Hints:
The chain is of the alpha/beta class. The chain is built from three helices and eight strands. The protein has helices at residues 15-32, 46-60, 114-124, and strands at residues 11-13, 39-43, 68-71, 102-110, 131-139, 151-155, 163-167, 176-180.
Amino acid sequence: MTQHAHHDGDTVLDERGIAHKLHRVALQILEEHPDGDFAFVGIHKRGVLVAERVREFLAKEGLEKVPMGTLDIAFFRDDLHHRTTNPEVQSSDISFGVDGAHVILFDDVLYTARTIRSAIDALMSYGRPERVELAVLIDRGNRELPIEANYVGETIETEREDYVRVSMKPIDAEESVVFYQGGKPPRS
């Protein structure tokens, strides 16, 4: 895990940097679990892309049959009643048995940990896994809940009001991780 001080508008990772960090996450998972006895679940939207990319790296390392699912947490969020707009709903698709499984959840950015808590609640609606671990591309700190990632691509020191934008193809036109000091910039 690398920690650097960043300035407003800094590109923390470019396309090559993202690929390098995700490959490192894949190797960490493989080192921890060489038997490959686990399944991936990506949290919509970019968590699914992170999981798919790590899964591709594992396939290149000889671990080709990692079961994978996708998870929508829209109706499991704890801020649902505070929202002024309806949540964007994606489809969840978990075709493997969750009961007794070792599941690795994936997201792009770990911040307050409320998304992960919601994802665990959503996952439990499919069954009771034996173990749940967390893998993220970016850990930016500032937790509100006692949840930490088991596998982290990059750690960025941020303040609560800062923003980290992850862009990944095919959802976005480019691949980058950009740091914004003091607030969220408009989406371009």
